[in-house]
Write a structure and sequence with these properties.
Length: 264
């Protein structure tokens, strides 16, 4: 399938004011980043110290992602996995999510040996994505938009699913504040397409404000999932089984007593 033809059709379907809307989004993104920059710098330093204390290797992780109109770019994140961690398991997990109605749960929610110490906390809190602000300042991403997908994920998209590339990808988005881990892959795409077609600056501000409580809920859910997965499995004996065992024992004893009296 020639994806360039589909993307050309998507580009031609954009409204004349699409470029103007994106310029306004970038102005808003830049202003908000400059506003919170004094708080982000010490936070980024703290994350750097946590990564250094738990694992050797680079602080940042770079990965090719697919963005606006299918353009490839290098996406930055704080590294939360051990160096040279196997990525084939993630591809298999993602393929399963794309072809099922299962919720979009991350692999690390129930334990992942590839994750470094403090990695689960960084991922659940969204702090691992702070370096993507570099991508925002470079114009490759926005604060709000669909999640930037991986190339092998993009290669398996259906034509209607590529409509999510009609806007710039973001750190947070409509899907992230609408249930995220409780939604299916198709529902995620539907949220992304809805945002791409109806985005406004006011909607961006609303989503940004909704992101904080959404992250808190995500951290609590991740903690509960890990507790449940680490809880030892206890051998269960149902009441009915115990009752049957007691009944059998009583019946055997009673029969023996009757036989002893009948046949002394």
């Amino acid at each position: 399938m020639d994806f360039s033809i589909e993307l050309d059709q998507l580009k031609s379907s954009l409204s004349p004011k699409a470029d103007q809307d994106l310029r306004r989004k970038r102005i808003l993104d830049t202003l908000l980043i400059l506003l919170v920059l004094p708080f982000l710098i010490p936070l980024a330093l703290l994350v750097t110290m946590l990564i250094r204390s738990g694992s050797r290797g680079p602080i940042l992780f770079r990965q090719e992602r697919v963005g606006y109109l299918g353009r490839r770019f290098r996406c930055f994140k704080f590294r939360t996995m051990f160096v040279d961690a196997d990525t084939t398991t993630h591809q298999g997990h993602l393929h399963q999510l794309m072809n099922s109605n299962a919720p979009m749960m991350k692999m690390d929610s129930k334990g992942d040996p590839r994750i470094i110490p403090f990695g689960v906390l960084l991922r659940a809190s969204g702090l691992d994505e702070l370096p993507q602000l570099i991508n925002v300042l470079r114009g490759e991403m926005s604060l709000v938009g669909p999640r930037p997908c991986l190339p092998y994920e993009y290669d398996n998209y259906l034509p209607w699913q590529k409509e999510r590339f009609a806007t710039v990808p973001g750190l947070t988005g409509l899907w992230q504040v609408s249930g995220k881990n409780k939604t299916t892959f198709v529902e995620m795409i539907q949220f992304d397409v809805k945002y791409a077609k109806n985005k406004t600056l006011w909607w961006d501000l609303k989503i940004i404000l909704m992101t904080v409580p959404a992250l808190v809920i995500q951290m609590l859910e991740t903690r509960q999932a890990r507790k449940a997965s680490s809880r030892p499995v206890r051998r269960k004996t149902s009441y009915s089984n115990r009752a049957i065992e007691q009944y059998s024992f009583t019946k055997t004893a009673l029969v023996s007593a009757v036989q002893a009296r009948a046949f002394p």
